[in-house]
Amino acid sequence: MLKRKPTTQVQIDMDKNIARRKIIGAAFFIFLGIALYVASNIVDELRVYQGATVAVYVVAISSIILLTGYSGQISLGHGALMAVGAYAAVLSRNYWNFPIPLTFAVAVLAAALFGALLGMAAGRLSGPYLAGTTLALAVGLPSLANQFKILGGEEGLTYDVGFPPLALGQDFTQYKWFFWIAALAALAATWVIFNVLGSRYGRQWRALRSNPTAAALLGVHVARSKVLAFTISSGVAGLAGALMSMTISLVTPSAFPLSLSFAIVTGAVLAGVTLLTGSIVGAVVLVAIPEVTAALATHLGGSEKVTSNLPGLMMSALLILSVLFFPNGPQLHRRKTRKS
């Protein structure tokens, strides 16, 4: 008969495993940061700008993975939460001249506060009811900017992050500056989410997603856990909105349409909504779709109707195919899950 380890030894082993995971995760993020730095000095300006856009989508998709993949709450309105973060960042920059890092912090706090209020209101909703509520938010909230003069109306507000520091050299372009800011913010946000998901809150969310009734019987406060997940996810989405407004140097209602909410949900589904590292794959696909559709539209004759409708059609097709054939992400991830 096997001798059972004492509780203290089990706890020591668990702490060692957690520490080992954190060290491996930190090493991975450091390696990824070095790789991004090297890549930014090799590729051309267009690819550098696309890299900044990929970083924005990584943050946005990570917010969906945290909310839907871990806590099981479905949101179709994260584009509106991105708009909240973007407007908070640009207002703090233009009216109070906050430094760029502080504007990002304001964006996170504003979106998190808005998400907390929304989470408390929608705490009793689930499934299609919650999805419908957030969908209504995505449709209505960006349009409200037209009603307030301080938000710039349809023309929007300019978000100027300034020129790169002279210490970085004359060859350091504006696009590379965008890429560095977005990439560092994406690495920092992903690292924070990685640690949160590995904490007891992440374990509570996974239990909540699998069986809310069983989680409640085990002592998990279901409503409080849902609101917390929605709050953190909203803050991450707000950071993504601030980063997006930085890359386009503008904040307007048209920059955060309903299609943006669908796009980040599609990106989360493409690589597995429960896989945080899959956000990179989903972001790359979202950035690549316009190029692929432009080339395909040119091949088909280049008509304006085809060019405008083809990206949405391709994204919808990818979403449907992913849900049908890879509902839990790539096959490799599913095999890992079965083994563990």
Question: What features would you describe in this structure?
Answer:
- The chain has 340 residues and is mainly α.
- The chain has a domain of 220 residues.
- The chain has 13 helices and 2 strands; from the N terminus they run αααααβααααβαααα.
- Strands 1-2 form a two-stranded antiparallel ribbon.
- α2 packs across α7, α7 crosses α9 and α11 packs antiparallel against α12.
- It is globular and about 60 Å long.
Mean pLDDT metric: 82
Assign a percent range to the helix content: over 70%
Write down the overall geometry: globular
Strand content: under 5%
Q: Could you spell the SSE succession in H and E letters?
A: HHHHHEHHHHEHHHH
Continuous helix count: 13
The main β sheet shows up as: 2 strands, antiparallel
- What would you report as the Rg, rounded to the nearest angstrom? 21 Å
First-residue to last-residue Cα separation = 24 Å
- Poorly predicted runs are 1-6, 331-340
Question: Could you give the order of strands across the largest sheet?
Answer: 1-2
Based on secondary structure, the structural category is: mainly alpha
- Count of DSSP strands: 2
Defining key terms:
340 residues, mainly alpha, 13 helices, globular, disordered C terminus
In short:
With 340 residues, this protein is an all-alpha fold. It has helices spanning 7-40, 45-71, 78-96, 100-121, 127-140, 174-197, 200-210, 212-217, 222-248, 258-270, 278-299, 304-325, 331-339, and strands spanning 157-158, 250-251.
